[in-house]
Inverse folding.
């Protein structure tokens, strides 16, 4: 594989093309990340139904990464995470069809997105972009690099998850996703189901804890807008997050991953 060489010659070309580009046009480049030919032999650690884009996704990790995080160790150098995107099969109404377990049914293969971590990677990125030692790359269904992919967007969207080494699905990788036990309704509880907050409007006393429980296979998140914004962690299936608002008022919120999901909290 001569990815290294092509990256090097691309860099040389960049220099020849002139220094005009150089100073602040730091472009994210995934040239180091090759197609993970063996991904199907890695650990399938999660599947995700994405209602918003009508996709069924499979998430694979190299076994050493799974072993490390399950022991509470950091994600090791050499880790490759592969997210395979499939079109969800649709029913007659154009909605995703469901299997016996209520999960999406795999349709056509659409794309692969890959993140790879290696010691020493990432140093060329400015701090507002850098995702530790991770690099990102996108591949088409033909396993070739998708030249049109906006790799900077990968860094930007994963950046807020710095606290979990930029891996949004870390809880699934760790196997700490519970999938059960969580309360589904009651005072101060908002259930997230089928990409909806329920109840959509809730009231709470000042300082009262409000619990959001995700029952969807897709991750969600709670972002309160307005003068005092707050962002919860991303919650996966079976996980919950709590927040409390001390000042009376009406607070509108959305899901940071799916901004069409809306709800509001009245504190009185
Ligand atoms: C709009 C935000 C967003 C962008 C842009 C984005 N991702 Fe992600 N990524 C997510 C979310 C959310 C997940 C969790 C799984 C899911 O919902 O599919 C995820 C999961 C992943 C995973 C599985 C490991 C993990 O972090 O959970 C990989 C690999 C990945 N993304 C690669 C990429 C690559 C490569 C790009 C750029 C081509 C990219 N992502 C761009 C939001 C984003
Ligand atoms: Cu959401």
């Amino acid at each position: 594989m001569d990815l290294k060489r092509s990256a090097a010659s691309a860099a040389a070309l960049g220099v020849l093309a002139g220094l005009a580009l150089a100073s602040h046009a730091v472009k994210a480049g995934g040239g180091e990340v090759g197609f993970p030919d063996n991904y199907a032999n890695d650990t399938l650690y999660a599947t995700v139904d994405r209602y918003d884009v009508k996709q069924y996704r499979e998430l694979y990790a190299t076994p050493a990464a799974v072993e490390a995080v399950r022991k509470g160790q950091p994600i090791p150098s050499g880790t490759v995470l592969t997210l395979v995107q499939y079109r969800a099969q649709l029913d007659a109404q154009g909605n995703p069809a469901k299997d016996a377990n209520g999960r999406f049914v795999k349709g056509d293969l659409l794309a692969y997105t890959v993140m790879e971590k290696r010691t020493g990677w990432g140093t060329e990125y400015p701090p507002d972009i850098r995702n530790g030692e991770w690099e990102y790359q996108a591949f088409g269904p033909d396993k070739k690099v998708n030249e049109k992919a906006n790799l900077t967007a990968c860094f930007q969207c994963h950046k807020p998850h710095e606290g979990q080494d930029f891996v949004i699905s870390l809880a699934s990788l760790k196997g700490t996703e519970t999938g059960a036990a969580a309360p589904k309704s009651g005072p101060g509880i908002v259930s997230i189901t089928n990409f909806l907050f329920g109840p959509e409007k809730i009231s709470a006393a000042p300082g009262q804890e409000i619990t959001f429980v995700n029952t969807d296979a897709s991750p969600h998140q709670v972002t309160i807008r307005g003068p005092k914004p707050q962002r919860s962690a991303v919650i996966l299936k079976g996980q919950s997050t709590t927040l409390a608002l001390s000042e009376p008022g009406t607070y509108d919120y959305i899901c940071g991953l799916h901004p069409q999901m809306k709800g509001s909290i009245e504190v009185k």
About this structure: Residues 3-16 form the longest helix (14 residues).
